[in-house]
Each structure stands twice: as C-alpha cells, then as structure tokens.
C-alpha cells in the first residue's frame, strides 16, 4: 500500500497502467482517466481532481476527505458506499448524472455548474449546501435535509416540501414551480 503526499499526477490513463492502492494526501490529479476502476479501500485526503474521468468507479469504503472535483466526469458513482468518516466532497463544472449520495452527510457541500440528472439525494443531509447553476433534472430528493440550502440559480428540480426538510432553504421566484409539482398544480 502506497502513501503519496503533495504529488501531482498528470495525463495518466490508469485504466491501462493500473493505479496503486494507497493513501493520497494533498495530491493533485490532472487529466487522468480512472473510468470503471475499483477504488475500494483507497484514501483521498485534501486532494484535487481536475479534468479527470472517474465514471463508473467502484468505491467500497473509499475515503473522500475534503476532496474537490473540477471539470470531471463522475457518471454513475455510488458515494453511499464510500467511507462516511469525515466524508467531504465539492464539485465545480462536473458531470454527475446517475450518481448517488444516498444517506450521505454533506452539510455545506458545494455543487457549482454541475449536471445532476437523476442523482439520488435520498435521506442525505444537504443542509447549507450550495447548488449554483446546477441542472437537477429528475434528481431525487426523498427525506432529504435541505435546510438553509441554496437553489436560487439552479433549475429543473422537483422537491416535495411535504417529504423533505426545506426550512430556510433559498429559491428564486422563477423556480418555485419545482416546489409545487408534487401537488399537481399547473403553473403558466
């Protein structure tokens, strides 16, 4: 098991050359391909992923502690299988369609300019999370804590206020229809 600290990894295709299991702390990954790898039991602490492909990565007990993703493809990831201890992830300009954050504790998480189509946020704690310019088409919110979350610039979401906690959450006037869809109300 490798321990890597403050290293930068650029233009690596780990789907061909393999990726050594280990703990990566304060590392930066740029233009790397991890697609469909099994990252179970790996640790990423204070790491940055920039322009990387992590689609369909398996993550049984993977540690994601204060990790940021920028311009990354993260389609079909199941973060509910990641290690919950100190779990903290943030996303900027990422493609996260068909991913799942089921039951994740993600207070103050940041999603900026992300595609979040059909993402499962069921039973997650997203209190004080920021969804800035995100496309939440068919994203699932069920028993989700969205208190003080900010959706003012996001769109295509449908959130049922009867089954989610939305106290003091922020919405724009133009997006209020996303809160009323579950009531069968037609808004013109």
Automatic annotation (TrEMBL):
UniProt xrefs under Pfam families: Pentapeptide_4
Top-level division of the source organism's lineage: Bacteria
InterPro entries linked to this entry: 5peptide_repeat (IPR001646), PA_immunity-related (IPR052949)
Name of this protein: Pentapeptide repeat-containing protein
Source organism per UniProt: Aquirufa aurantiipilula
Phylogenetic classification of the source organism: Bacteria, Pseudomonadati, Bacteroidota, Cytophagia, Cytophagales
